[in-house]
Every structure is written in C-alpha cells, then in structure tokens.
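Note to self: keep these together.
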Amino acid sequence: KYGIEPARVIVTGQALEAELCLDNQSVCAERLKRYKSNKQLCLALFSSGAYPPDHLDLLWRIVSSLSKSDMKLSLFLGSSIRKLNWFKRKLKKIKYSESLTGSEKIHLISSTSREDENKKVAKIFRQLDCFVAPAHERTNWAVGLGLPMLILTPHIGSYAPLNARYSLKQAVAREIRSNDADEMVSLLTDMRTTGELAKMSRSGYQSTNITGFRVAADYLIQASKQEL
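Structure:
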C-alpha cells in the first residue's frame, strides 16, 4: 500500500526477555498442574511507569480484595519509592502490616531500572499462575509464554487498546474493570475451577514465535558482516 518492498521487512517474531523463555515447556506444565491442585495461586501485579491514578486505584482495590485470601502477591511498583510507601500506608490501614516485614503473602517490590525489575520477575516467573498489568509490552507474556493476564482498565496509551483487543481475541487475557476489583477472590476462584485459567495458559503457550531477539541479533550480525 505504501510502496515498501516486502523484502525490506524483517519479521522477527516476539521479542521476549530471554530469562523468561528458558524451559518454558516445563514452566507451563507445572502451572497447569497447580491449577488442578489445591495450592494457593501466585500472582504478579504491575503498574505502568506513568502511574495513572485510575490504574493505581484499581491495583489497590485488587490487592485489598486478594489480601483476604491465601493467594501470594508480588506487586511491582517500578522505581517510585513514593508509590511503594503509598501502598505500605494503605496496607497498614487495613491492618496488614505483616506484609511490610517480609511476609510470604504480599511482596511490595521497587526496582532501580527496568533491567533490575526484569531480573526480579525472572526469579519468581516459574511460580506465577497469573498476572495483572496494563496492556503494554508485558502482554507478550500472555500471548507467547502462556501466563494468563488480567488487563487493567481503562486502556491508556496508543498501543494498549490494540494489545488488549489482540490478547482477548487470542483468549489469553481478561479485562478487569472497576466493578471486578472488589470481587477478585471469587473471580479468580471461578476462573480456576471452571478451567478458564488453564485454557488461557494453553492458548498462549507456543502460539507464536518467541525468538524475536535472536532473529534480530542474527540479522544485525549478518548485516554488519556484509558492511565489512
């Protein structure tokens, strides 16, 4: 349509964090086994770096709801110590101060950089059963790695609506709206019992090529050789 020759377009596939792609087959198999067991669910929750108030409010209501269950939560709050302290104060108000002293149930996590956060995510990725985030780049985890996603709304940013639409079409994600936030325990319990979480995980596992970084690197290496 725009006169670009197809040969000039390099299709890499999804560019996913290498640490998260390691042994993904066994990671997904273990996740499916946990869904069928009575083990507590383990969730990761993320805010975008812009910390939109609507998302922070929704995240807090989700955490508050899930704090009443036995689910394990890791809340990643980027590099903002202010937001981390804000969540700590909110937890104190609901008398959940034990989470501030290394509780195994709720972890509040700040990171010095995205690279630092990626390393912290990689340490727990194998144990994760689901994650909550805006429909930004982490949507790749649901589409390519089989980790079910609960999408924060409203969609903010140019790509979020497109990512949400695609992941919903692929049946690897579910949108979380304001009226869902206070009922997260029953919602996740139902998704587990009915097999929806397992279906979402299977739909995302190996549904795309997840070697994007390697393909891009190989292309650049070959291109540099030709230049020499």
